[in-house]
Amino acid sequence: MFGVVFPNRSFPMDISAFSQIDTFHWILDMNTFVGEAYDQIKEICIFLLNNFTLPPDKALAVYIQSPGSPFLYCGAVTLSRPSAVLSLPWSQSSDGGQLQLTNADSPALSAKIGVSVDDLSSLPSLDVAADRNIERMALKVGENLFNFMQSFCGVDGSKLVVPMDILDRWFKKFQEKAKRNPDYLKGFTL
């Protein structure tokens, strides 16, 4: 039906790596896969297998659950989008969809990844993960700029005073760090 890969972390795994809850729900317990280092797994690639045909109005939705938290929607694949690399924003709350797997729906003691066959119309935008990444990156870049400016601020009554060339200096420093360390910009998207 489907397979997953954790980029730079695993070989392709098929549905047999997951515990089947019912006809339309599967769970991967991250403790059995990586133990307590689940939050180091930042992405999942999910793909439909060639012999599986999903109805056009259905999607395979991916959810994550940090210990003690509800399930959080990460994205989905469909017949028209048979594979996707999805971000796994562990331990962040969201108003995005929630996966219903049991009657109790009690908070989990271990991290889990859930896959569910859902109605396509009931899911948020398939680009929800990309939207979250852009928002987080903008906030982190803004925070970096603010911290840099704050170190050069002076006070004039009730106003903060910064040098006129502060944005140019910050941007040059930002570019230099990005050139020296290719992973520097990746830190803003995690």
From TrEMBL:
Coiled coil: none
GO molecular function: nuclear import signal receptor activity
Gene Ontology cellular-component annotations: cytosol; nucleus
Entry-linked InterPro entries: Hikeshi-like_C, Hikeshi-like_N, OPI10
Domain Hikeshi-like N-terminal positions: 18-122
Pfam families for this protein: Hikeshi-like_C, Hikeshi-like_N
Domain Hikeshi-like C-terminal per the UniProt entry, residue ranges: 134-186
GO biological processes: protein import into nucleus
PANTHER family (alphabetical): HIKESHI FAMILY MEMBER, PROTEIN HIKESHI
Family as reported in the entry's similarity comment: Belongs to the OPI10 family.
Name the record gives this protein: Hikeshi-like domain-containing protein
Originating organism: Nepenthes gracilis
Organism lineage string: Eukaryota, Viridiplantae, Streptophyta, Embryophyta, Tracheophyta
